[in-house]
Amino acid sequence: MKDRALNANMLYYLFDSANMHRWNDHLRTLDLTEMDKQAHKAAIAWILGKCEEDAGADLDWHMLIEHNLFSFIQRVALTDLKPQIFHRIEEEKSEDVSRYVLCEFDRNVPHTDAGFRERLEEYLFSDKSSREDDVVRAAHYLATKWEFDTIYDVNRSVYGIEDTKAEIGEQIGQHSDLAGVREIMAGGSDLEKFIDIIGQLRFQQRWARTPRIPKTTVLGHSLLVADMVYLNDCDAGIGDGQAYNDFYTALFHDLPEVLTKDVITPVKTSVSGLPDLLEGIEHEMMERRIMPLIPAGWQEELRFMTYEPFSDTEVPKRNGKEVKACDWMAAWMEAHISIRYGVSSKALRDGKVDIGRKLTAVGGYGETIGAFDIIADFERMEI
Predict the structure, then answer these.
(1) Please, what is the end-to-end C-alpha distance for the chain in angstroms?
(2) 143 within domain boundaries
(3) How far apart, in Å, are the Cα atoms of 131 and each of 58, 120, 198?
(4) What is the pLDDT of residues 9-65, one digit of tens each?
(5) What value does the mean pLDDT of the chain take?
(6) Helix (H) / strand (E) containing 57
(7) What's the domain range around 17?
(8) What is the number of domains present in the chain?
(9) Which of 131, 210, 257, 267 could form a cystine bridge with 345, CB 3.0-4.6 A?
C-alpha cells in the first residue's frame, strides 16, 4: 500500500509546534506559540499574494501553499532558536541545516508520500529565490512584527529591545518590492487592520471550558485543518484550483468567530434555531467589520471561504466535506493528545468518543481523509 502524505506521524509532528513557545525570554501578554505564528504567516501570505496578483504578478499558489508548509516543517525541526540565531545559522550553515531538518523529518515521519518527501528535500536545498518564497518570507516577518508589537510596551526596559525592533523593521524592509508590504508598512492601512483581526484568533482558546495540554487557539487549529486538507489533496492528486480553494477555506473557516467568539457544540445543538441565528449574525458582522478592510475584488472569495465552508461546490471546485472531516480530525487530536499527556476531563473524553464516532462512521465524511487509519495509528503511537 502506498504511503500517504496525510498520516498520524505527520500530523503529530506539526501539532507538536503548539508546545513551542515563542518570545519566552520576554514578558508576554499572551502565550505565543510556533503553531499560531505559522498560522498567522499563512494568512498573511494569502494577503500578500492577492496584492501581488492585483499588481499584475502571476503567482503559483500551489507552490506558495506548499512552501509555507515546508518552511513550517523546517521551523519545527529547529525548535525554539532565537530568530537572529536561526537566520545566521541558515545563512552560514545552509546545507548542514537542511540535512539536519531532513533527518529530523525522516526520523519523526518515517513513512510519507515519496513525491512529497522529494519536494521537501528539493525545497530545503534550493536558494528559495522565487516570488512565492519572497511572499512566504515577508509574511513570516510581518507575523513576527505583529507578535513583537504585542509585547513591546511591557519589555521597554529589556536590554536590546530596541535592537530587536530595528532588526525586524530591517527584515521587512528587504521585501519592500512586494506591493502588499509597501501598503502595510506605510501604517494605518486597512490591510494592517485585517492582519490584526486575524491575529485576534490567537487570543481565543479551543475547548475553553476544560483543562487541556497543550492549549491551542482557533487560529492554530485552522492551520492544522488547512495543512491536513492540503496533504489529503496531495494524496488524491487534486488540481491546483481545488487545492487552493480547499486550503484557504480551511484556513479561514473560523474567521467569523473573531467577531462572535466560539460557541461550543453542545450549546449550539441544545438551543433550537441557535445555529441559524448565529450564522446570520456572523455574516452581518463580517459584512460590516471585515469586508470593508479588503479590496472589493477579494470580498466574494472571502465570503466563499467563510460563509459555508463545509459545503461541496463545483464552481469554484471545493470539497467542503473534506474540510469538515479535517476540522473534526483536528478536534479529535486536541482531545486525544491532552488525554495522553495526562490532562483529562469528562468533556475531553466524551468529546473524543463523539468525534471519533463521526469520523469512523461507515460512509461518513471521515472516509474522505482515511480517518479510521489515522485514529488507529494515533491510538498505537507513543506520546
Answers:
(1) 25
(2) yes
(3) 9, 18, 24
(4) 999 999 999 999 999 899 998 899 999 999 999 999 999 999 999 999 999 999 999
(5) 94
(6) none
(7) 8-380
(8) 1
(9) 210
Helix axes 240-252, 218-236, angle to 10 degrees: 160
* Residue 196 pLDDT > 80: yes
Handedness of CA 145, 61, 76, 256 (dihedral sign): positive
pLDDT in tens, 330-370: 999 999 999 999 999 999 999 999 999 999 999 999 999 99
Report the pLDDT averaged over residues 157-165: 95
Dihedral sign computed on CA atoms, order 38, 44, 50, 52: negative
> Please, are residues 51 and 189 in contact by the beta-carbon 8 Å criterion?
no
3, part of any domain = no
Least confident of 204-208, 223-227, 322-326: 204-208
Query: What pLDDT, on a 0 to 100 scale, did the predictor assign at position 254?
Result: 96
Interval 63-91: pLDDT, tens: 999 999 999 999 999 876 666 677 777 77
Three-class SS of 14-53:
HHHHHHCECCCCCCCCCCCEHHHHHHHHHHHHHHHHHHHH
Contact 249, 310 (CB under 8 A): no
Residue 1 lies in a domain: no
Contact 322, 229 (CB under 8 A): yes
Helix (H, G, I), strand (E, B) or coil at 79: coil
* 340: exposed, middle or buried (Cβ count in 10 Å: 0-12, 13-18, 19+): middle
Q: Which CATH number fits the domain that encloses residue 329? A: 1.10.3210.10
C-alpha cell at 112: 510519507
Percentage with pLDDT > 90 across the chain: 86
In a domain, 121, yes or no: yes
Residue type, 259: L
All three cell numbers of 84: 537572529
The per-residue pLDDT for 88 is 78
Residues near 55 by Cβ (< 8 Å), separated by ≥ 6? 179
How far apart, in Å, are the Cα atoms of 242 and each of 32, 50, 87, 248, 338?
32, 17, 34, 10, 33
